[in-house]
């Protein structure tokens, strides 16, 4: 979505859409600028935002884990030294932060396949393949353990480590139209389902790409995946 920062600020003023508990937006076109600022201003020595129009396997999740691990362990700064935000702004990438119920009852898997943005070895078992932790999520795990917490690239594990997820409203609109074509009712119904099935730790923003600009204006380092 092409716009200037003043337009973004005007559009972003509105009611709460932060998914701290339910993961829902109260209404179409409403955004919480204060919640966005709270995420961007979390205290940390380093600030990093990852832009993900596609998942490309698990590229944004792997990058987030490696960035945090490098600062915490390789540089010896300890946990919490980097504020990491992932901005999801593609119709397939936003599906990574939908809950299992959405994947069970909607055409998320089929849309991911249509976008050629899911590993061919992934089974369609009606669950979000990116969501559930694959480790014990024990912070005392050895950082070198490839099966441990610090190499768990799932949304659940990364959220536990402090990663925040921006979800592009424009991408959800695109996804809703494509889901409707796959049999998920009307685009309006698909969009409502997308908004109501976000997992905790997510925030709907007007435009995921514009969120990258706002973050960089606040001295975030930007990484494209």
CATH architecture: 3-Layer(aba) Sandwich
CATH class: Alpha Beta
Which overall shape is indicated by the principal axes computed on the Cα atoms?
A: globular
Query: What is the CA-atom radius of gyration, in angstroms?
Result: 17 Å
The largest sheet, given as strand count, sense and whether it forms a barrel, is: 6 strands, mixed
* Number of extended strands: 6
| Termini Cα gap | 19 Å
How is the largest sheet built, in terms of strand order? Answer: 1-5-4-3-2-6
Structural description of this entry:
- The protein has one domain (17-224): 3-Layer(aba) Sandwich (Hypothetical Protein Ychn, Chain: A), CATH 3.40.1260.
- It is globular.
- The protein has a 6-stranded mixed sheet, sandwiched between helices.
- The chain starts with a helix and ends with a strand.
- The protein has helices spanning 5-12, 33-40, 59-74, 100-105, 108-114, 155-160, 169-181, 187-196, 208-217, and strands spanning 18-19, 46-52, 82-88, 164-168, 202-205, 221-224.
- It has 9 helices and 6 strands.
- With 225 residues, it is an alpha/beta fold.
